[in-house]
Each structure stands twice: as C-alpha cells, then as structure tokens.
Specification:
Blueprint (H helix, E strand, L loop, with lengths): L1 H4 L27 H23 L49
C-alpha cells in the first residue's frame, strides 16, 4: 500500500554534453631515406653477386670431380704422384686339431 501511495521520482536531468576529447593528430613515423637507400643497395649487390656465381661459365678444361684447371697465365704445377696402396694378404687360419667323436 505504501508503494502505491509514494510518488515516483522524476528522471534525472540529462547532463550537459561534455566536449569530446581532442583526438591526437596521427603522426607519421618516417624511415630515414638514407637507411632505405642503403638497404636497397645492399640487397641489389647481394642478388648480383649470387647471380654472377650461378651464371658464370665453367672454365674450358673443367672436369667434374677433377683437379681445378690452372689459369692461362699461371705457371704449370704438377700434382705429386700418389703411390699405390700396399696389398695385404689374407691370413691363413690355423687348422683345428681333430677331436675324438663322443659316439665311440
């Protein structure tokens, strides 16, 4: 009964709109131009170096697995002779003595 008799309070008054906080201006993060150029130069030089070693022609006297051919202006170098490996004879196994058979 008391609830019905009480008056409902008025709704709270709307607050005045607070000014929106000023958004910070987005700052661009700049990369130094010199660093960008230096990295590009290093990258291009690395690619050129790899391409040179991959695409260069083989020397005319190259044999896969063979000795490295000498340059035309270098003095002739002879490889030392490799001696043949000594041969090893297989050892003869000694013969076992005859043992008496257990059935006799």
């Amino acid at each position: 009964m008391l609830i019905r008799q009480s008056a409902t309070p008025p709704p709270p008054a709307p607050k005045a709109a607070a000014p929106a906080p000023a958004q910070p201006t987005p700052t661009k993060r700049s990369i130094p131009l010199g660093l960008l150029i230096a990295l590009n130069v290093v990258l291009v030089l690395a690619i050129a170096l790899v391409a040179y070693f991959v695409l260069r022609p083989a020397p005319p006297a190259a044999v896969p697995g063979g000795p490295v051919p000498a340059a035309p202006s270098s003095p002739a170098v002879r490889a030392p002779a490799v001696p043949n490996a000594p041969t090893v004879q297989t050892p003869a196994a000694p013969k076992l003595p005859a043992t008496p058979s257990p059935n006799r």
